[in-house]
Specification:
A four-stranded antiparallel sheet has the order 2-3-1-4. The longest helix is centred in the C-terminal third of the chain and has 11 residues, at 62-72. The chain contains four helices and four strands, in the order βααββαβα. Helix content is 40%, strand content 35%. It is an alpha+beta fold.
Length: 97
């Protein structure tokens, strides 16, 4: 599984609130209804008063992330960055010597 850091920004605050409320305040439920199987939300944060937030997710395939991004494009802007855990980064550094 690959981990990603996703920064999101609401394009339309009211639409974003509607999407969140419609799915019982659960981003995992929202992801499931998008048909983007294989995404597990590990952490989620909302920036106070800024209409934006961050997620850490694990995915089986980058296709799932792309599917979710396309389906949410009218509601939120997304910046998606693949990330490594410390242990994985150390292993890569050891190989780079």
């Amino acid at each position: 599984m690959q981990n990603y850091l996703i920064n999101w920004t609401a394009k339309d605050h009211k639409k974003t609130i509607g999407h969140f409320e419609e799915h019982a305040g659960s981003l995992q439920t929202l992801v499931a209804t998008l048909g983007a199987a294989g995404i597990t939300i590990k952490q989620s944060w909302h920036m106070l008063g800024q209409n934006r937030g961050m997620l850490i997710v694990s995915v089986d395939s980058p296709i799932a992330i792309h599917t979710a991004a396309v389906k949410l494009a009218d509601v939120v802007g997304l910046e998606i960055v693949p990330v490594l855990k410390d242990k994985e980064a150390l292993a890569a550094l050891a190989q780079a010597k």
